[in-house]
Known about the structure:
The chain is mainly alpha-helical and 155 residues long. It contains six helices and three strands. The radius of gyration is 17 Å and the shape is elongated.
Amino acid sequence: MIAPDYPGSGIPVTLDDLADAVVHAAVAAGVQNFTIVGFSLGAAVAIRASTRHPGRVDGLILAAGFARADNRARLAIDIWQDMLRLERRETFMRFSLFSALSASFANSSPPEQIYYRTVGRTATSMTWPSGWPSRRTAPSRTPTPVAAPRTPRTR
């Protein structure tokens, strides 16, 4: 399994840039053909990689993707960017968890795990590249894994 980080450093990147970076990481690791596992934004990246590099991408495993940003998603992204621009790290983490966790999962977790361990620890360790967040694409440390066969592929 290859799990490259997306390019970042506060520079704007496109979906094509992210897709090409994932494919480049797999090829650089010596894997010529592969299946991409995409979660959330990674689903869109995986689909774009498969259309840009059909000779390399053999399959897709997609979860929690979205076909397009609806009004709710746009609102959440605007709130995230405002909180980050204002360096409201702890508020950003609380809102991110609120958006990401189901009610049953959040309510089954001890409060100290969510508030003190997850929110507090992550918020205090967050740093931003200069000029971040960008209105185009913010840098991400969330990988799009590439699943490769253990043995060379035959056709």
